[in-house]
Give the backbone structure.
Amino acid sequence: MHVAVLILVAAAAEPVPPSALEGAATFARDSATVLAWPAQLQLGEGLVLGGVALGTLAMLRHDTHLYGELGGLHWTMHGRSVFNTTLQAGNGLVDLGVVGLLALGGNRGQNAAVAGVQALGSVAVTCWLLKHIFRVERPNADPLHKTYFDEFQDDAFPSGHSMSAFATATIISSTYPAAAPFAYGVASLVGLSVMKRGWHWPSDVLAGAALGVVIGRVSLRVRTRRVALTTNGVAVEI
């Protein structure tokens, strides 16, 4: 125990290399840029989000009906629901582990891993803010009736699992295009899974998926710009 304490004290006393400090500062700046993703939107992304917003508004009046139609959907394997397994692919910690594994793929994978971590951080904050703004009751409370702007504990909109899964799928697909059908297929199963679990309405999943894709794209663009600057000797790559 005493030896461990001495090692920690010695490590703390060791000066941090300036390059590490600069790299950490660069990571923090880029993370803040991704967090402010609405300011980074390109015209096409803005139009897509606008279209999804209109689609989400149109879907709100049909949410209870669409949710009810999912009741007859059952996929099982060895007597267990497949959705209980695919649900885990939208867990933020699982997705963080997945993008972390990309770092094993050389420079391309490492850049994707950094973009993925920053995207998932932005997803977490964005999702938390929107949930507290809209405060939509989850369907497992009452599948026949939706409420909005209710208690702070009501946090159906948007689907955080869908945001996380689609942001991760976007990072993977941009880095390894051949994996795109699999990545987005798994993300779509996550969307079905959270509805089957009674956690989210269809509109929650649609909005979450669109936000996840956009945040993933913004994070990749910020990272690509950072690598380009590094190549020109303007910044320190991490």
